[in-house]
Each structure stands twice: as C-alpha cells, then as structure tokens.
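REVIEWER CHECKLIST
Item 1: Sequence provided? yes
Item 2: Single chain? yes
Item 3: Sequence as submitted:
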Amino acid sequence: MPIPTPFHPRTAALCETNDWRTWSGYMAPTSYQYAWEREYWAVRNSAGLLDVSPLFKYEIVGPEAARLLQRVMTRDMRTCKVGQVLYSPWCDENGDMIHDGNIVRVAADRFRVTTADPMLRWFEDCGYGMDVQVRDISTEMAALALQGPNARKVLQAATDTDWDTLRYFRHAPAQIDDVDIEVTRTGFTGDLGYELWLPSQHAVQIWDRLMAAGAPYGLLPMGLGVLDMLRVEAGLLLIEVDYISAHHAVIDAQKSSPLEAGLGWAVKWD
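Item 4: Structure as written out by the authors:
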C-alpha cells in the first residue's frame, strides 16, 4: 500500500480529484483540480509547487567521495565546485545507461545524488575499498519543486533573501521560519525554478509558509500529470519512459548509451 509523503496532510486536503499515483511507494497527486489546465498555466504564467519527496536521495561523504563519483559518472566530476550542481548519466561496464540524475557538491568531501530508482547498493559496490560512506537520506529529507516565472518572487518572500544572483544549477543554504533548508536552482519543467531540500519533520511548516508567500503571485500546487507535460515540452528525459535502464532491460536492443539518448554532451571523453 502506498505511504504518505511528509507533505501529505496538505496535499491530501488540496487534492479535489482524489486522483493519486504511486511514485516509489509513495502517494503522489496526479492532479489537484478537475480543471488541471489551471495547474499547467500556473507554472507557465505564475508559479507551481510540486512535492518531489519520493525521489531517492543519497549522501556521499568522505575523503574519496569525489573519486567515487568521478569513477561512476560520465561527467568530469573534477570540475564540480562546492555549491554547484551537475546533471549526469551513469552507465554499466558496456557503456549502457543505468540512470541519470543531479549531483550537488555540498562541501569539498560531501555530495548529494538524487535518483528516481533505488541506487544505494550500486553506489556502495562501486565504492568498495574507498574511504567513502554512502547514506540513504531519502526519508530524512523532504523536497519541493517551486517552478514558474514567479518562483523567484515567491522564494524571496518566504526567505527574505535575494535570489537574483543564484545561477542555474547552483546550490545555496537558506532559512524559512528559522528552519535550515537547501535551495538548488534546478527543476524538471524548463521554466525558472528552484528545488527546496528540507528536514522531513518541518515539511508542513515549510509548505504553509511557501503557499502563504506565493498567494499574491498566483502560486498553485501541481500534480504529476502536469509535470509530465512540462518536462516533455522541455525535452527532459525520464527513465523507463524515454530510455530503459540497463539494469531493467530484458534484451540488449532495449538498452541505450548516452549518445543514443541524446546525452553525448554529458560525456567527458578521456
């Protein structure tokens, strides 16, 4: 049976359609309103708020954390500076894609990787013998995607911080109502957007603050059905839809290299 995310007390109350999907074992709204077009146009014209807590989140820590990621990612992780986010595929020994995701360099020896599928065992196996620790922090950390042309105004109102200088694919700490959170200028919509990473126990408090701050800017909660449309328009890949993981493929013809998936730009050739 699907389990609720940390934001469920709010998302359930707002979900007029009672239309839910199972996402990595969690309950996620497909749409909040019967006129789901309002959610779509909110993201394109004002702002939308999406619960992305079901993403798997892994903390990779230690003196050889960068070495582990350099070993498994197709991007050159040596170029990833503290406060930077890199998108990268990762592949099996034959060069076929296993997954793709964002890697945040939180500190010199600490990274966070987000994935749609569980990857803990694979990261641990790849780091065997290295001075590195891989932790699954998925249940400890809730996450929200704040997307749309008014997203910056909403975030500035909620944090009393100027976000004009945070560049695309960058990371910064912040506070909302004295709760320490992390902000990345990332998203899955192709629009201006931010993703907020926060302690799960403060999820409802942060949701309420954002919705209150966003009311003057047309902020609406959005479901996964609208996200599907937005990410297709943006040309962003989704695992098991646009490519099959090499770990799940039944035959070789189902597998894809990063080049076949249109991600040749994300491969650092030796």
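Item 5: Key structural point noted by reviewer: The chain has a mean pLDDT of 98.
Item 6: Recommendation: ____
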